[in-house]
Amino acid sequence: xxxxxxxxxxxxxxxxxxxxxxxxxxxxxxxxxxxxxxxxxxxxxxxxxxxxxxxxxxxxxxxxxxxxxxxxxxxxxxxxxxxxxxxxxxxxxxxxxxxxxxxxxxxxxxxxxxxxxxxxxxxxxxxxxxxxxxxxx
Length: 137
Hints:
Elements: E1 4-11, H1 15-25, E2 29-36, E3 41-48, E4 51-58, H2 64-72, E5 75-82, H3 86-95, E6 106-107, E7 112-117, E8 127-132
Parallel strand pairs: 1-4, 5-8
Antiparallel strand pairs: 1-5, 2-3, 3-4, 6-7, 7-8
């Protein structure tokens, strides 16, 4: 199976402030919220047709999203591709020599395993692979 865009992550200072644009102006449906303590981030999930948007708000000044916001400001943080076997995709990326942020999958939002390719290898775009738990495909 080919990769498909699962979601686009957007870093925001405040989900509460950002949500009105996505719901009231773009008319997207809010799917819910989640806090991912290991990533120090609060996430709002929005349905956007064939994909989802994730609004990402830091819950700590030490979080990766807080560091991103301090350096680049609000905006697109990453593009996530859904994969069927994340460990195989990580191995393929290693074999072609691209640098990874994650050499092993880790727990992400929506109960998915995730791994990132380093943006310096991909035109400064942070690419995420995400795999739904085996029983949730």
